[in-house]
Input
Amino acid sequence: MTATPNPKPKSPPKPATAAGEKSPGAVAMGWLHTAKFLTTAPQLHFLPALDVPEIAFVGRSNAGKSTCINTLTQQKQLAFASKRPGRTQHINLFSLGKQGVMDAVLTDLPGYGYAAVPKQDKIRWQQVMANYLVSRENLKAIVLMCDPRHGMTELDEVLLDVIRPRVEEGLKFLVVLTKADKLTRAESTKALSIAKLQAGGGEVRLFSAPKRTGVEEVATLLWDWAHPQGAGLAARPEALASHDDAAD
Ligand SMILES: Nc1nc2c(ncn2[C@@H]2O[C@H](COP(=O)(O)OP(=O)(O)OP(=O)(O)O)[C@@H](O)[C@H]2O)c(=O)[nH]1
Ligand SMILES: [Mg+2]
Output
């Protein structure tokens, strides 16, 4: 009797979706792809007052903030990404929204902790950032980018202290563990559990730009935060219209 080879394991069937229906990840990625440069400013008081949700990317210099924004928005050059730390030196705002209607903003903030920056400049940037994080009225969420090979540094801890009162008041918070492609599976698992403890109830995700790890997951979180139920309905007049009909 000849042995029959084991049949190839079949991948699990994909969940059925109605024709044309997009997954939440695809909707979020489509929305992020609408990103456009809005404005840049050296300090908070030069920024326009906005009434749409704003999501800020913060973290040490070189952590991968600009690369993450470019990956999420599927635009190579939207935010400057560089091998030279300290490349982002202004507060940069990018608008999001379909059909040119702005419904949220992403902010790329200058990184902190780059040793070669003169001390006076460092202190100034820390003040600009703290001022932004504490006072920006429409700030809805903070994404803290952290290279898990270095872990959370003292400056990350200072930042966590600065934003804690706002997180307690409902500001959304996500720790993105960047450059996950540089970690083994065991290192990734360990980095995730440590970051979950440090994030104090915030979300934590692994992320890799070249491997696209976590891209759709992070995109979906940002979409959800920028479109809480009320705003989601308001942005869909047809949904409100049918609601009105039902009330008649
Ligand atoms: N392997 C790997 N490298 C990455 C990843 N994300 C960013 N990098 C690299 O890390 C370096 C810094 O990336 P940036 O996106 O410029 O970092 P930043 O946090 O914006 O830096 P500043 O603007 O100085 O605050 C660049 O050389 C990127 O190519 C990643 O997911 N994997
Ligand atoms: Mg940058």
